Amino acid sequence: MNKNRLEAFSDGVLAIVITIMVLELHVPAEPTWPALLHELPTLLSYLLSFIYVGIYWNNHHHMLHLAGRINGGVLWANLHLLFWLSLIPFTTRWINDTGLAEVPVLVYGLDLLFAAIAYYILKTTLIRQQGRGGALDRAMGQDWKGKGSPALYIAGMGLSLVNPLLGIAAYSVVAAIWLIPDRRVERFIAHT
Q: In whole angstroms, what is the distance from residue 134 CA to residue 103 CA?
């Protein structure tokens, strides 16, 4: 099967996810700096979630660039990833509505963890489709970021029970690690 439809659908879902998140932002009640400052936690959680969706969009694009063709397993693995990403607006809003309460911050981390697992499943499904030694397999290499991120999410979930801000800090560290798109794929493409 051709991958173009999968890419277009994924792009559309991620655009809707971002749209839902931005619709959750509220204009300050008054035209003052204190009113804007009151909305700062909401803006920061939106920023973190926007960065996460952007990270997945970038890496999804890179990964599919190396995928020659797809099959039904890839379609389902992609839907699995999109499901967890589609929950980001919900978990972000829950964090905002509860003022960074520990359970919503933990659930936000759980959503990020499940999205990371789903991304790994999609990656391995694509590699299996291509066969070991294919372009994606060679470009991905050891993938230390992909293997380390789940551990940081779990640590963040534990830290959120101590102090929710520590959980958010751990999730922010993972985002910072992934902020730069995966250069392995770009280098691989440049050398082939």
A: 42
